[in-house]
Amino acid sequence: MRLSLTTWNINSVRLRIDLVARFLKAARPDVLCLQETKCPDDAFPLKRLKRLGYVHAALSGQKGYHGVAVVSRLPFDSFTVESFCGKNDCRHVEVTFGDRAGLRDPVTIHNFYVPAGGDEPDPDVNVKFAHKLSFLDEMRSLARLHPNGSQRAILVGDLNVAPLEHDVWSHKQMIGVVSHTPIECEKLTAVQKAGNWIDVARSFVPEPAKLYTWWSYRAADWRAADRGRRLDHVWVSPALGDRVSAIKIAKDARGWERPSDHVPVTTAIEL
DNA sequence: ATGGTCGGCAACCGA
Predict the structure, then answer these.
(1) Which domains does chain A have, with CATH numbers?
(2) How far apart are CA A46 and CA A65, in angstroms?
(3) What is this structure's pTM?
(4) A160-195: per-residue pLDDT in tens?
(5) Which protein residue's Cα is closest to nucleotide B9 at C1'?
C-alpha cells in the first residue's frame, strides 16, 4: 500500500477551507496534517472535510492561536497530544495507523507546530525565542520521538527553522534572523540526530539546490523576490528510509487567492 | 538600514 501525506501550515483553517478543498480535490492525499488552524475543536470545519472523504480527524485546537489537526481518509487506531514547556498550546498531535487501516505493521505520524520565536534572536531578552529553544530541547529528549530500528514513524510540520545553508534565500543575510540563527539550527539538527530521523526533502533534493516552503506576506512580489525559507519538514524513521517514493512542494498554492504564507508539502511512502 | 503583511478578534498579540 502507498500512503500519501501532506503537511500544510494553513494560517486559519476556517478562512481558507476553500483552499483546503481545492488542494484535496487535486492532490487527494490519504492524510492531511494542518498547523495554525486557529480554531477551537468544536468549530473545526469537519463537515466539509467529511464530504471530501476525510472522515477521520484528530484535533488539537484552541481559540485564536496555534492549533494542529490530522484529517484522514483512513481510520487510525489511536491519537494523542503531547504538551511542551508546561503549556497546553496545541502544538502537537500524533496518530497511529494500524489494524483499522489494514496495516500489519503500524505507522505513527507526529504533527508539530514549533513556536516561531518572535523577532529578537536573544533568549535573555525575548521570551518567545527562549520558548522556541526550550521547545526544541524538549523535542530532542522526548523518548517517543526516538523510534527504534524497526519502528515506522513520520514526523511532519511547521518546525519554524530553516536548518541548512540553502534552506534560505541568503545564508549570509539570514544568519541573524530568527528561523535561521545557528543556535536554533543546531537545536533542530539535534532533534533530528537524537531520533535518527531522515530529512525526506533533502534526500530527494540535496544541497546546494535551494528549497523553500514559505514566502513572506511582506514582499511586494513574493515570486519575483523569491526570498523563501524551508520551514516545513517531513522526516521519516530509518525503517521507512528507503520507502519514500516522492516529495512535492506545491509552490503554486502560494499564488492562490488569499493564500497561506506556507505551501503544502506532500510525500508518498510505500508501506 | 528599514519597513514591509497577514489573521483573530475586537486592542494588540502572534506570525
Answers:
(1) 2-270 (3.60.10.10)
(2) 19
(3) 0.98
(4) 999 999 999 999 999 999 999 999 999 999 999 999
(5) A64
